Amino acid sequence: MDVNTPAVLTGPQKTPLQGIRGWLILPMLGLFYMLYQTIIMMYLDILQVKSAWHLVTNEQSDFYVDGFSNAFYMLQMAQGILIVLLAWNVIAAFKGLKIAKPLFIISMLFYTVMVVVSRFVFPNIFGIEIEYSYIINVVNSCFYCFIWIPYVLMSDRVKQTFIH
C-alpha cells in the first residue's frame, strides 16, 4: 500500500438541485391553483352580472350605469390575459425556460391585483354588493406572494432549473 495515494471517501453524494422537485413543487401547484381560481373568478363575475346586464346597459332603463359595459369588458379581458399568462407560465416552467422565473413573479403579482380589482374595486365603483368572504382570497394571494417571490428570487434549485 502506497502512503502517497490519497484516500478517496465514497460518502453519499448530493444530488444536483435541478428540476421541479422539493419545495419548487409547491409554487408549481400554486400556478395551477391560480389558473383554476382565475377561471372560476371570471365565471362567477359573468354569472353575477348576467341577470342584470340588460338593465344596467340599456340607456332607457332606470338602472342604467354609464360605463359599466366597458369596464366589465376590460375586467374580463384582463382576466383572460391573466389566464393566458398563467398557462404560458406553466408551459415555460415545465420546459425549464429561463423566462419562467420572471413570468412566475409577474403572474403572482398580477393575480393578486386582479383578485382585488375583481372582488372589491369593480363592485365598489358600480355599487354592486361586495361579498366580504372574498377577503380570504386576497389574504391568501398576498401570503402566497410573500412566501414564494423570495423563494423564486433566491433559491438555488430555481436558478439551476430555469436556465435555458
TrEMBL record:
Top-rank taxon, per record: Bacteria
Keyword line: Membrane, Transmembrane, Transmembrane helix
Segments traversing the membrane: 23-44, 71-91, 103-122, 134-154
Pfam families attached to this UniProt entry: DUF2569
Coiled coil regions in record: none
InterPro entries xref list: DUF2569 (IPR019690)
Protein name: DUF2569 domain-containing protein
Originating organism: Providencia stuartii (strain MRSN 2154)
